[in-house]
Amino acid sequence: MNNIVNKKQQRHMFLTGAISFSVIFAILGAIIFFTFQHTLYSSADRNLQHEAHGLKDEGMMPNPGDFRTMTLLFNETGTIVNFNALGDRATPLAQIKMDKKDLNEIQNVDLGGRAYFRTMLVKLKSPVTDGVQTAHYALLLENISAERQSVQSFLQVLLVSFAIFALLTIIVSWWLAQRNMKPVMKAWQQQQDFVDSAAHELKTPLTIIQNKLEILLTRPSATIQEEFDPIILSLSEIRRLNNLSADLLTLAKANSNMTVVKSEAVDLGEFFQQIVEPYGEIAELEQKVFTSDLAAVGTTIVDKQRIHQLMVILLDNALKYTDEGQTINFKTAISNKQLSIEVADTGRGISDNGKKHIFDRFYRDEKSGSRETGGTGLGLAIAKWIVDSHHGKMTVSDNFPQGTRFVVTLPVNN
């Protein structure tokens, strides 16, 4: 993944996160604000509706109240009838005009910042007269200046809080985008390394085969016996290609979760005995010492084929990297419901740096000389995957005074 694609993906994740969090905070803030406002105004609205019910249905005039609750009486033309009774409140309240379209509706009235009211206009059940004018409408007023101030103060606090959270959202979204891109970049880099290494591994045997075949073409009259060595070398490289392609296919399926662990009951004693017998014979032919201690007995549930493949990988490596007269020891045991499998040898060993990367794909340790033995560097990566798929653990350490020790621990499932 080049830098441009990386930045584009990171920017997309950042914007998505920032916008998503901002929308969530905005919606939450709006819900809190309108709930708070409704709660404050609901008491005033209930008072207005109660007074309106008395005027419309029972013809009862409300009792004179303080400046918080008042009633304006209007005639048919919209003139205030009880103007003189308002006292010092008359001047500011004279700004209020009657609008018959607002009949029976709760409205907000702002007296130029001096006072703020919730109002309801109702038609009187019976007209009221003072001997000069007749009132047909009553405008009920509930002073909510204090509530409005509280709402405005709360809105300011909410906006400041939203600004702070918006800033935090940007910071967190950027951090999350950076953090979430790390495994993506790591996986992409691993894929790139895998492809590059696979191409390199495939190129070497193909080049050898091509060169040997081209040499054969220059000697059309030669017999098979005369060209025995080039043919044998080509066949060896073909076998290596087959093994490499099989390993690549196994790892590709493992990465895509296409490979399913096929669990079955396995008799451990018989299973391990069948595995070690041929290796004892091979070691004897190569003048190496092979010992086994098969203490693990009983039955457990595993993928028999994969565990067999795991044992083959470990034992093959032990044989490859030991010389004549050196020892290979294979041990199994069960303790605390854990199956322990140990393969130790007194061979070339693995460097300290190699132990950190030994399970990486295509990794070869210079100390072990795996290139000279024809290894592809995929065997232990497959072995690690098999162990992980069984929820187990595999470690590598020095086998003192010389050699390497692999220990596999698997849970015992009866």
TrEMBL record:
<dbReference type="Pfam" id="PF02518">
    <property type="entry name" value="HATPase_c"/>
</dbReference>
<keyword id="KW-0812">Transmembrane</keyword>
<keyword id="KW-0902">Two-component regulatory system</keyword>
<keyword id="KW-0808">Transferase</keyword>
<keyword id="KW-0472">Membrane</keyword>
<dbReference type="InterPro" id="IPR050351">
    <property type="entry name" value="BphY/WalK/GraS-like"/>
</dbReference>
<feature type="domain" description="Histidine kinase">
    <location>
        <begin position="197"/>
        <end position="414"/>
    </location>
</feature>
<keyword id="KW-0418">Kinase</keyword>
<dbReference type="GO" id="GO:0000155">
    <property type="term" value="F:phosphorelay sensor kinase activity"/>
</dbReference>
<dbReference type="GO" id="GO:0005886">
    <property type="term" value="C:plasma membrane"/>
</dbReference>
<dbReference type="GO" id="GO:0016036">
    <property type="term" value="P:cellular response to phosphate starvation"/>
</dbReference>
<dbReference type="InterPro" id="IPR036097">
    <property type="entry name" value="HisK_dim/P_sf"/>
</dbReference>
<dbReference type="InterPro" id="IPR005467">
    <property type="entry name" value="His_kinase_dom"/>
</dbReference>
<dbReference type="GO" id="GO:0004721">
    <property type="term" value="F:phosphoprotein phosphatase activity"/>
</dbReference>
<keyword id="KW-1133">Transmembrane helix</keyword>
<dbReference type="InterPro" id="IPR004358">
    <property type="entry name" value="Sig_transdc_His_kin-like_C"/>
</dbReference>
<keyword id="KW-0597">Phosphoprotein</keyword>
<dbReference type="InterPro" id="IPR003594">
    <property type="entry name" value="HATPase_dom"/>
</dbReference>
<feature type="transmembrane region" description="Helical">
    <location>
        <begin position="12"/>
        <end position="36"/>
    </location>
</feature>
<dbReference type="InterPro" id="IPR003661">
    <property type="entry name" value="HisK_dim/P_dom"/>
</dbReference>
<dbReference type="Pfam" id="PF00512">
    <property type="entry name" value="HisKA"/>
</dbReference>
<protein>
    <recommendedName>
        <fullName>histidine kinase</fullName>
        <ecNumber>2.7.13.3</ecNumber>
    </recommendedName>
</protein>
<dbReference type="InterPro" id="IPR036890">
    <property type="entry name" value="HATPase_C_sf"/>
</dbReference>
<feature type="transmembrane region" description="Helical">
    <location>
        <begin position="154"/>
        <end position="177"/>
    </location>
</feature>
